[in-house]
Amino acid sequence: MTPSISAAPDRRPERPGTGRAGWHRWANAPTLGWLLAVALLAGAHRSVPDSGWLLTHLALLGAATNAILVYSWHFAEALLRLPVPSRRALAARLVLLNAGAAAAMAGVVLALWPAAVAGAAAVGAAAAWHGAALLVRVRKALPSRFASTIRYYLAASALLPFGAAAGALLALPATEAAGDLHARLLLAHESINVLGWLGLSVLGTLVTLLPTMLRTRAEDSAEPVSRRALWILLAGVAATAIGALEGNRIAAAAGVLVYLAGTVVSLVPLARAVVRKPPVAFAPLSAVAALVWLVAGLSRLAWLCATARDWDALHLALGGLTPVLAAGFAAQVLVGALSYLLPVVLGGGPALVRRRTETLDAGAWLRAVLANGALALYLLPVPSTVRVAAAVVGLIALAAFVWLALRAVLARTAAPAARPGPSLRSRLGSGAAGLAVLVAAVVAGVAADPSALPVAAGGTPAATGTPAAGGGAVVPTGHTTTVDVQMSGMRFVPDTVTVPAGDRLVIRLTNRDDTAHDLVLATGQDSSRVYPGQSGELDAGVVTQSVDGWCSVVGHKQMGMVFRVNTTGASASGAPQAGAGDVPGMQHAPAAPPSASAAQHTPYPADLPPVPAGTIHQVTLTVRDTVTEVAPGVEQALWTYNGTAPGPILHGRVGDRFEVTLVNDASTGHSIDFHAGALAPDGPMRTIDPGQQLTYTFTATQPGIWMYHCSTMPMSLHIANGMFGAVVIDPPDAPPVDRQFVLVQSEQYRGAQGGIADSAKITAGTPDAVVFNGYPNQYDAAPLAVRAGERVRVWVLDAGPDRATSFHVVGAQFSSVWAEGAYRLAPGAGGAPTAASQAMDLAPAQGGFVDLAFPEAGHYPFVSHYMVDADRGAHGVFAVAAPK
After folding, report:
1. Separation of alpha carbons 696 and 641, rounded Å
2. Which ranges in 5-110 belong to alpha helices (H)?
3. Are 503 and 542 in contact (CB under 8 A)?
4. Residue 541 and residue 467 in contact, taking contact as beta carbons nearer than 8 Å
5. 270 by DSSP, 3-state: which?
6. Which of 85, 623, 782, 853 is 20 to 30 A away from residue 226, measured at CA?
7. Which 8-state DSSP code applies to residue 331?
8. Distance from the Cα of residue 155 to its chain's centroid
9. Does the pLDDT of residue 4 top 80, yes or no?
10. Helix (H) or strand (E) holding 615
């Protein structure tokens, strides 16, 4: 018979805060707390830096690792049957683990690298300590039938310190010189931590826990099979990690396949148990689903390692695999195990155990269907709005478990007299309700973005086999025309193909560019994104007449990525193609009229920030899609660095070194170009796709105010949509001043309310507004405060993308003017004025500063003296107070 590794329920009424129940109430609190943090962050992740990374580590490093420490010790007690020692050492390990996990996560998110490294060291130390304590217990115990489970725990504990060390190295700022080391180190880190620490702990536990959940016995062969599988699994972890560190992706892929083989071997006895006693309660349902996701994730990982074109591509692809291993496998096996174990370890007698079990089993099939269906939807190539709806459904399923677990932990009264559990019919009904919720999520997602439907007026999806375009009486020929098209230089090559009417058309796409593209036909067919170096295919169905196509990545159509399918044997012109002239989602309505006062707007800080300490400045710039108010009553979906447009103002001195980590947390590819540094743009200025990051290092060798901006094409659109900022490098010979301000002039080409910039307006050169620091007239309502007689320096940068400026302060004169590397009007000795200037003219991407002193108290407007632009919003005020 299966030993009860969950231990027999305590049949005595519990005394709160004492004994095993009190201990487990305390010990399980961190696990539930980390899961609650996952649920809360998932609802607000867009406003939190590195939210995807943080969600994964809250679940794995926080919740799952706590549970492993608590229950590996608990199962060791049950299997080894030794007297229970004091749990003070285990409590100390849990405190060390949680402090380390919190420090590591905070250190990465806040870019406090010493904290991240110290936290990783604490996590590794807690695991090593735990493994040593287990080893001492094993040596004191008599032989146990299921001693292989303890061996899994020992192996996992030995691996985690190495995984934590790899995590600490990943937390250190990357450099260009490191090449693909970061990507290789990431795979090693994930193989050791996810496959080693987490995977071994789970597989070693389920050999006896899953049959116990199913209320059946473990096979006699389970233990020897598990023992043999352990060596295969360890070999797989080692081969994957070593292959990654050596830069051999084929060896890494082989290691994953070895691990997959070990997983399958260990699951064979469990599969027979599931066939013998199919799961009906939530705990085994969730555990079995987790194992299915594990096998699927390992298969995908092996394929990615073997087929990725390079380590950077593999790094990007691993982001899409994270939900499978973190949510599908780790989170599900955790909530399934806790649903079974919490009632038992909290004890309190059979009635109270039954009450807690029933609480945690509420809506079992509904929650299982929601969790797994939502994850499947999220991973499918569905529109982003459907993916968001799926994420919300998955979040509801997780939040439901956290709520039920808290209710179970806090329960004090016993359940009523035993009653039959839910019938199969009611469970099937619960599962059907879950499917209905998923269907509703899909409908809601499509309703939120109807353009995502793969059907346009006048056409049908290729999958139907019906004509893809037009309604002419063209008889299908039964023949398939296949054409090869390359994406290169922001063009389709060739950009026109000719197909006999009635033929089925298949377009094979190869991306030779350095950014992602797709091909969308006016009749609705879509190739999905094809990333650099990869290939894709679009099945256009039976072609009945000519049809237009384009790349739907924002701005790419405007740059010339258009395509045409011509037909022979039918009207070449055909009926007008629905939507042939517009990229889906790019239609622009007039901006809403102003409906709020600019006084309600929080102005962009215009004060020049101080130079940070030291000569090496480490900066993280996270690209985000940020819906924000850009004028009273007008909202736009800007692309931003760290959530603002302009991005953060960087400040340094000549000779300072800037180490900038660019993180793309947006919905499309972006890049960055620092005019303040001189270096080959090939690597550091490359476009990175969502989920990627790079490090851009430069040394400031010359003074000035330098522009930084996104250099992804079309550059005009990316800059106009918010992707620009300023770097101020102090001139060593400039006289000291009392106050310094930074004003970055740019233009707004507004699209639809809540949309992005209008490419047509950019091309036509017709901005809706010209602004200082991202918002029209903001310094009229919130003037810049100075005092009469103070020497004031105003740094001005024209970020464009297209309008020049002539900076002028009404009622004041400039005592010195410095622009683009030299004084136009130099000060005298000690900064004393020798002459005066009235304006500083700058072309786009040029900058400089003016020095001035206000003669008396009052309000002094500053403007671009291109007066039409001042009328458009390039206007502000200095509020000058009397001298102290």
Report:
1. 14
2. 19-27, 29-44, 51-57, 65-80, 88-109
3. yes
4. yes
5. helix
6. 85
7. I
8. 31
9. no
10. none
DSSP secondary structure letters along 826-843: ---GGG--SS-BS-EEE-
Name the more confident of 16 and 549.
Answer: 549
Quote the pTM value: 0.56
pLDDT band of residue 516 (cuts 50, 70, 90) is: confident
CB contact at 8 A, 308 and 375 = no
Q: Which residue carries 């050492």 as its tokens?
A: 89
Question: Which of the 8 DSSP states describes residue 599?
Answer: G
Residue 464: count of CB within 10 angstroms of its CB: 11
Give yes or no for a contact between 564 and 538, defined as CB atoms under 8 angstroms apart.
no
pLDDT in tens, 789-820: 999 999 999 998 999 999 999 999 999 999 99
Burial of 262 (0-12, 13-18, 19+ CB in 10 A): buried
How far apart (Å, rounded) are the C-alpha atoms in residues 80 and 125?
Answer: 24
Q: Is the pLDDT of residue 706 over 90?
A: yes
Angle CA 186–188–194, to nearest 5: 90
Residues 544 and 745 sit within 8 Å (Cβ to Cβ): no
The C-alpha atoms of residue 461 and residue 757 are separated, in whole angstroms, by: 30
Burial 108-140 (b: 16+ CB within 10 A, else e): bbebeeebbbbbbbbbbbbbbbbbebbeebbee
Q: How many helices (H) and strands (E) would you count in the chain?
A: 22, 27
Instruction: Find the mean pLDDT for residues 50-72.
Output: 86
Other beta carbons within 10 angstroms of residue 143's beta carbon come to 6
- Tokens in use for 454? 């793969």
pLDDT tens column, 577-617: 333 333 333 333 333 333 333 346 789 999 999 999 999 99
How far is residue 229's CA from residue 225's CA, in Å, rounded to a whole number?
Answer: 6
Radius of gyration (Cα) for the chain, nearest Å?
32
d(CA 122, CA 128): 10
Q: Kindly report the average pLDDT of the chain as a whole number.
A: 83
Convert 155-168 to b/e letters by CB count within 10 Å (16 or more is b): bbbbbbbbbbbbbb
C-alpha distances in Å from residue 395, one per residue of 103, 321, 330, 340, 701: 25, 18, 15, 21, 50
pLDDT in tens, 158-211: 999 999 999 888 877 655 445 678 788 889 999 999 999 999 999 999 988 899
d(CA 677, CA 687): 18
φ, ψ for residue 842, nearest 5 deg: -140, 135
| Six token digits for residue 195 | 């496959």
Mean pLDDT of 649-669: 93
Q: Please report how many Cα atoms fall inside a 13 Å half-sphere around the Cα of residue 441, on the Cβ side.
A: 28
H or E element at residue 542: strand 535-542
Going by C-alpha positions, the residue among 321, 337, 331 that lies closest to residue 283 is 337
Looking at residue 174, what is its pLDDT?
Answer: 54
